[in-house]
Design brief:
Number of helices: 11
Number of domains: 1
Number of strands: 0
Structural class: mainly alpha
Order of helices and strands: HHHHHHHHHHH
Helix content: over 70%
Radius of gyration: 18 Å
């Protein structure tokens, strides 16, 4: 029991540092919250969390190990993820928003689904998440436990940390809502986020399989 608790605490500390490190998921959630309100930001965060949970299930089942062993499988998913990020980036650059969405639009079911799906695909199409889970999580599995079950438990811990951190980021956008609602700021936000996505997409496509 002591080794299990120690492993969980060690993983939580390490995962927390990795969670707060800015990445494409963070940029997506911040942009969704700033452009569409808290509910769209929460929907994007939930999509990212579900993506992490999916990778956790695959890692626990041993399927994600395929990405670490097969350069072709990794490269295919890598290019698909890069293409998706570049598409999102170009869309934001070429068609930035001109006005703050109306409350009905920001809270509509269709808008929430779109934000959630965007977060889910952004995460699932990033093979680095799968390789991270299959290579990093096993280091914290103590002896004498069911490996698959404990791996999934660690993935759940990571998901909870991710949701908590995104909750902090989403809440932080509320005090500056009026400033973000300005047309110039809105367009600049979309274009900056688009550049970030293009940068991540180019980096993902350029990197060689692990």
């Amino acid at each position: 029991m002591h080794s299990v608790v120690s492993s969980l605490l060690a993983f939580t500390a390490a995962a927390l540092l990795l969670t707060i490190t800015p990445g494409v998921d963070t940029a997506l959630v911040l942009r969704s919250a700033a452009a569409g309100g808290r509910r769209r930001g929460a929907a994007a965060a939930l999509g990212v969390a579900l993506g992490c949970l999916g990778w956790g299930l695959l890692a626990a089942a041993g399927l994600a190990a395929l990405l670490a062993e097969s350069a072709l499988a990794y490269r295919v998913l890598q290019l698909a993820g890069a293409a998706y990020l570049c598409w999102l980036g170009l869309r934001m650059l070429l068609r930035p928003r001109r006005e703050w969405p109306q409350p009905g639009a920001a809270m509509g079911a269709q808008g929430l689904r779109a934000s959630g799906l965007r977060g889910l695909l952004t995460n699932l199409l990033n093979p680095k998440v799968g390789v991270f889970y299959v290579s990093f999580l096993p280091q914290f599995v103590p002896h004498g436990v069911w490996p698959a079950g404990f791996l999934f438990l660690l993935a759940c811990v990571h998901v909870l940390l991710t949701l908590a951190w995104f909750g902090v980021l989403i809440a932080a956008t509320a005090p500056i809502g009026r400033w973000l609602a300005r047309e110039r700021v809105m367009r600049a936000l979309d274009r900056c986020t688009g550049l970030v996505f293009l940068g991540f997409g180019a980096r993902l496509a350029w990197e060689r399989p692990l």
